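Q: I have 295 residues here and want to know how they pack in 3D. Can you give me a structure?
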Amino acid sequence: MDFGAFFFLATLEGLVQAAILTLTALGLSLVFGVMRIVNVAHGQFFMMGAVMTWWVASLLGKSPVLAFFAALVLCPVAVGAIALASERLILRRLNYSPVGTIVATIGLLYIIQEATLTLYGPDARPVEPPFYFNVQFPWFGYSGYKLFVIAIAIVLQIATWFAVKRMKVGLLMRATQFDGDTAKAFGINVGNVYTQVFVLGGMLAAVAGVLIVPVQQAHYLMGLDPLLLSFIAVIVGGLGSIQGTVVAAILIGLSNGILSVFFSPTIAKIVAMLFVAAVLVLKPDGLFGGREARA
């Protein structure tokens, strides 16, 4: 395989990583942008989506297509319910204190991780893709499922953008983000908006977990890398900026995929951290931070 074909293959792998990262980082960016809190447990929502997908697949294993699409619906809903309980029972009682929520979500991270280890076990377990076919390019055939992952991620990003920019729920989110006290004065139930945002962020991460598990085996520690890369994307893009987060996630995912194919995942992570350092030195507010970062 010549360099051009090899680079194209690496780019496709990078796009798959970028698709997963944009969904995970988008949820984290929404939570920070509207609620102004850092959810350290966000990666665990990703992990639960993957582990629950294995559980659904084990129940419906005779029909991989049915199992996958059932998981694509049921797992984000289940994770959303856990996010709802976490927000109502923990974060709301802390009055969304920035320091308090960091400590609380660190605790939530370990609770979810250890509960998953106890119930699921330490082994990484595969999930069968819903379909097997290759899309034939001039140089090689490429997994149709991976292209499906990219397409689903694009659709969900467009749907999220439309909801935030064109629907009433998005208007309430933007009003709450801009000035919570003024939003309350105009009769907006800020607590309910926070709940909806936190649940949506968790569900987006869970969808990413469902999509990746036929490619990467489900494991109780698999939420740590997505959490780190999501934080990098949110910081580089500009805190609270959806557009910035998506652009940064695509750049990081692409570079991570390409460098992992040509060199190693370790080199890819080093480059990602150097990229963050360079952005923070040259543009401390992030790529889109010059424009007031808002959803």
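Q: Anything worth noting?
A: The chain has a mean pLDDT of 87. The first strand starts at residue 134 and ends at 136.
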